[in-house]
Amino acid sequence: MHAQAARRALADAGLDRSRVDGLASAGLGTLAPVEIAEYLGLRPSWVDSTSVGGATWEVMAAHAADAIAQGRAEAVLLVYGSTARADLKAGRRTANLSFGTRGPLQFEVPYGHTLIAKYAMAARRHMHQYGTTLEQLAQVAVQARANAAANPQALYREPITVDDVLSGPVIADPFTKLHCCIRSDGGCAVLLVAEELVTDLATDPVWILGSGTAVSHTTMSEWEDFTVSPAAVSGPTAFARAGVTPQDIDLAQIYDAFTYMTLVTLEDLGFCAKGEGGAFVEDGRLLRDGALPVNTDGGGLSACHPGMRGLFLLVEAVRQLRGEAGEGRQVRRRDGTLPELAVASGTGGWFCSSGTVVLGRG
């Protein structure tokens, strides 16, 4: 999957692999970028193996853009692949993801506090503090599924209702099954190049205008506020560096392993005030033709979630900005023109890390 995605990205760009001198990868084997480079037949002089969960790829994109700007590399390939679903079906892994029992986690593991329980606890706190309702959280899943309906590559495309979400089996209170991301296989790749190479490429470029990164906590006891994610730092930083505001953004791709992640990240990026996320996601606002299209491919809740999904956010943002999303799926501005600005914001761990990238067309 890594190789297939890499070949397709290079073919899309029209760049020979001999020009690739940078590689970023994580999540496979012991020495991820070394193993992937060997498999792809590459010998990069710049590598990145940053691993901060789902935010990894936005952080890597920021690192790569900085390296290119400093002349350390001219063509950096970000590549990811995972057979999470196939491995589960074949019995090569279990359904539960364990981060081990050593280090700071030793103080939580004995109590059975799983990854999903951490997100569920945070969601429950938001509900208690701001009056956010289960119906509002369910709206995130419903609209993600509606966006997935037009995506032929989405794993689940059948419409769902708020009642469907609420009536499902409870996974970790208050989350039912449809509040949680799907499990899938998948791979993708993104190529970042120096400006000097743009004229040699086969496709129009999408520019990284600004980025921001942040980390928060590992143990829940060190998380100062369950209703604030590290996107509250990475988002404003990315917007400031890009010279834009959230109000300028045409579409957003947000990490959505759980419905609460979408809601709280929208708040922290500045699309609405803290505590107003519940009302913000109502009335179809997140749909492809809504006021702020979010996760236009269906997101991790419906399209795909092989593991560290952050790279898929960048891929979907680029497709939409280029006008390549396809019939019935392409986002357009109110005047019918293609979107100009997008934001991709990844989250890692249980709001442990965040990477936000602002992208622009032309």
TrEMBL record:
Family annotation (Pfam families):
Thiolase_C_1 (PF22691)
Q: Which residues form the Thiolase C-terminal domain?
A: 212-361
Transmembrane ranges?
none
The record's annotation in InterPro entries points to: Thiolase (IPR002155), Thiolase-like (IPR016039), Thiolase_C_2 (IPR055140)
Q: Which SUPFAM superfamilies match?
A: Thiolase-like
Name of protein = Acetyl-CoA acetyltransferase
> What is the species of this protein?
Streptomyces oryzae
Write the lineage as a comma-separated list. Answer: Bacteria, Bacillati, Actinomycetota, Actinomycetes, Kitasatosporales
